Amino acid sequence: MLILSFVTVFALTLSFILNRQKTLQALKKAAKLLANLFFPFIKVLIIVSLVLMVFNKEMITSLLGEKGGGWGVVVAALVGSLSLIPGFIAFPLASLLLKLGISYMTVAVFLTTLLMVGVVTLPLEIKYFGLRASLLRNALSLGAAVLTGLMIGLVWNIL
Amino acid sequence: MKDFIRKNRLDLGLALAFGIFVLISIILPFPPGISAAKDFVDFFGEFISFIPLMFILVGLFDVWFPKELVERYIGKDAGLKGIFLVILLAMIQAGPLYGAFPVAFLLWKKGCSGRNIFIYLGAFSSFKIPLLTFEISFLGLKFTLLRTLISLPLFILIGFAMEKLLKNADFKVNDPDSINEQGGKR
Q1: A88 and A72 in one domain?
Q2: pLDDT tens across B74-105, in order?
Q3: Among residues 149-168 of chain B, which lie with CB inside 8 Å of chain A?
Q4: Domain range holding A129?
Q5: Residue among A106, A141, A151 with most chain B CBs within 10 A, to mutate
Q6: Residue in A30, A91, A155 nearest the CB of B55
Q7: Does A102 share its domain with A128?
Q8: Same domain, A61 and A105
Q9: What is the DSSP letter of A120?
Q10: Model pTM greater than 0.90?
Q11: Is residue A130 domain-shared with residue A100, that is, in the same domain?
């Protein structure tokens, strides 16, 4: 967040010094983009809040905790793909899961699928990239996320 | 204004329904509904703090970088340098993945290759610097390094795979709200 603010202020100042006209044009574009995308984004946020109401923290913890081993990883991949939890909740949750004794492999699969696969946002993604490309991207990302998680789990104790 | 309401009437309806649901949850009280409202407030805070910044950068990028330039650096024939640049671009941004879709559209419009679009999305989902700092503080440097080093080559592979798989599918990035006169064409 801090880095993004810094980069934006710097770029905006530089642009303003170089060319006022162009900078105004850029700000107009930004405002238009915001106006056009405000409600589609709010819609996603509402849906995510409702999904999280069903899939709450306690439920995720118990789902991953009760089922150890192979099933834990499958459940982690499923929950990670289905939910859309922002980083500021996901990372503390992951560290809590580790403290509860859930394996690195399970937690890693949960986190990587969470970051890379988005089932809730799929309708929005399809609008941009089309059905085929969106499904392909999510399927390939799911594979890559699970593979990453499994590998983290496998090498964790060696390193 | 009328146009705006007409275009967004479904989303406005949903927002209104959600508002009523929250109100009822508070009156009853229905704790899960109240916690959903709290989550929504959190998400909205995140959204409103990063999206305007992202869009200002998108606007600046749009006016300052001509198509020919972008095409040369991250287009079809940009090679390794192009891959490196889109990953770098993704790393300095912030926010959830859906915020990257409008950026992907702009990159596409300016001539970015399909392969690099998907590498960009992959890098955006996983290697944003704000995300990495958060990850290091909660899960440690070892975990973060492992995850980054293992998934980076996979993302580049996904980019190449997507390019191959979509070769004959007439792939394009669309602009769902026709923000730009050119639409999805380029």
Answers
A1: yes
A2: 888 888 999 999 998 888 777 778 889 999 99
A3: 150-151, 154-155, 157-158, 161-162, 165-166
A4: 55-159
A5: A141
A6: A30
A7: yes
A8: yes
A9: T
A10: no
A11: yes
